[in-house]
Amino acid sequence: xxxxxVTVIGGGLAGSEAAWQLAERxxxxxxxxxxxxxxxxxxxxxxxxxxVCSNSLRSDRITNGVxxxxxxxxxxxxxxxxxxxxxxxxxxxxxxxxxxSFSGYxxxxxxxxxxxxxxxxxxxxxxxxxxxxATGPLTSSAMAEAINGIPExxxxxxxxxxxxxxxxxxxxxxxxxxQSRYDRGNDYLNCPMNREEYERFVDALIHAExxxxxxxxxxxxxxxxxxxxxxxRRGRDALAFGPLKPVGLMDPRTxxxxxxxxxxxxxxxxxxxxxLVGFQTRLKYPEQRRVFGMIPGLESAEFVRYGVMxxxxxxxxxxxxxxxxxxxxxxxxxxxxxxTGVEGYVxxxxxxxxxxxxxxxxxxxxxxxxxxxxxxxGAMGRYVSTPNQRFQPMNCAIGxxxxxxxxxxxxxxxxxxxxxEAIARRSLDWLDDWIRGHI
Length: 439
Prior knowledge:
With 439 residues, the protein is α/β, with parallel strands linked by helices. It has helices spanning 13-24, 65-75, 79-86, 99-112, 141-148, 195-207, 228-232, 285-292, 345-363, 376-385, 416-438; strands at residues 4-9, 27-32, 56-59, 88-89, 94-97, 116-119, 131-133, 155-162, 165-167, 177-178, 188-193, 260-266, 273-276, 303-305, 308-315, 333-335. The chain has 2 domains: 4-154 and 316-438, FAD/NAD(P)-binding domain (3-Layer(bba) Sandwich); 162-311, Elongation Factor Tu (Ef-tu), domain 3 (Beta Barrel). The protein is globular.
């Protein structure tokens, strides 16, 4: 392949994946990352591909949408998946990682790649040459102004949040038991609550003081990152049926299922830190210590990071981007990452991968790549590009993929797990054939 020059703006998961895929396909890449020269409110590390919220990349089973997406990415030589697999920490059926190891791996690999020129500076303009913009939902004001100048663009504002992290040594182990749901290992710490403890906790949570956020609106919070206190206001049992659901868990000390359970997930490789699963919050810091200290086992918890909340900006992608994440009115300019309306670490990286594959194929004169809707990658691209009056961030799910055909030769598979396995096989078989013909 002859050298082709591409600019990638943003060194998060999407930009890092895009730069890697392009460079591996013979493109020369200028990768711009404004950290550490300029840091957004959500970032703390100078490393690329920083995980600013949870350390979990969610399910690793191919019968789950994001699990299938991960496997498609692995088969396409994804850098983000290589980093995640080497930085894995115990998390039951999920893929969780050591943050520093994960981001350090990505940073080292890209810094050493001969096809990538790394620029630690803010990029405040949109290049006239082929480019992928992956600056994230906390795009700098200068770049946001440049983006807003693109014709036909509309944006949407949402709010995102991160859960607190505490030290394992500070936990009261006498109140906690180790177990994963449905006997899938022992990777989680569980803080069980009886009904009285749960009711007191919900009362305190509902009445706790929250940090003010300018123009905050509950309706603009993405469901997957709903603050725990906002969820509690939906009904007294909303948490017990949500992040505190006790299903699949049995307290070995009582032999019974608790009324509610707060799960703690390992956050670093050494196992010295855990995060509160599902506890995104905008409570003030003293209130987090007080209210979360009511959780059994967290009475004297040491917080190394409090929960935070911030505004995110997303593109109104339908009508602006095509299924390859390319700007419809400006060929050669792509967007990738969470700002496009995909939600989640894996989905963000996958959008960078898909944009890079399409752009590199275009630069080779082979045309853009069309992944069908029965692949997770193709279904995700279709979601962000299909007109939708209620467009909002979306996780990858089996439900957005093409269903299996049902006819005389293909009877309906009624068992859901078997049906999802068949959907995954169809996707991976097609992808394997495509890889043999294109890579």
